[in-house]
């Protein structure tokens, strides 16, 4: 089965993929990550091991698909983004633990599930973006600063209910407790320049257009905007700020992977997961989307390195996942998206 025929956004039927599952030299991946991000990794894995990677790509709904397929699912590995989406798969009961010394060695404890149900592949930070023209360097340095009344009418964010912001709010609950985190979120809402809307890049565009002065967005979008001729001016209008560098560090999120329960090609699936945690794959995967490797010692790309180094918050992502429901309720309680 040719990987390019599967990976280019076409979702094939389960029966079609299942027909290939019997081969000992194949592994089936369900991926919410875009094809251009994962294809180089799988090509390298196949070249090294001889194991062919079959991919089903979709923007959403893969966990539900696996549940519907049940014991007949051809899925071996699920690749997705954001700790909440990874935890969704675990909570749905479609994953199983992986006993691997390689994964435990390559991936720090705070970036994998304590019960080995999921493992991080790359990291991205939840950064602040500040107008070069209207915000002095050092004027905003922490997430907590976003609730300072001095920023009233000057902050833009995407909806608080989006997974990226839910994870940030979860980290605020973990560090400050629910009461203080709620006060912070109310303060942030009071400082919004407009109703929460759009995606992360849309917030930086709003800074460029003068709608606000400060925004929250993931670090890798900075690279994406700089490399897009139509969006470069947005990125050039801001400074990227790594928050809380004198304290706990910048809040981090991940892309990650899980082994699917009853995987028909389990041995090859674990082999692929271990490969993805290794030096070569970590470098490729992080570079292609301007992200940060999870394996210590793997060098950042020169492009990402040019943005500066930072201290990362090492709060276990399992804790963020545990507090997700509390964060979602808090968004509703303060009427953040209204």
TrEMBL record:
CDD domains: PBP2_FutA1_ilke (cd13542). GO terms for molecular function: metal ion binding. Belongs to the bacterial solute-binding protein 1 family. It comes from the Bacteria. GO terms for cellular component: outer membrane-bounded periplasmic space. Fe cation binds at residues 220-221. Pfam families: SBP_bac_6. Gene3D superfamilies: Periplasmic binding protein-like II (3.40.190.10). This is Iron ABC transporter substrate-binding protein. PANTHER family: IRON-UTILIZATION PERIPLASMIC PROTEIN (PTHR30006:SF15), THIAMINE-BINDING PERIPLASMIC PROTEIN-RELATED (PTHR30006). Residues 1-24 form the signal peptide. Keywords: Iron, Metal-binding, Signal.
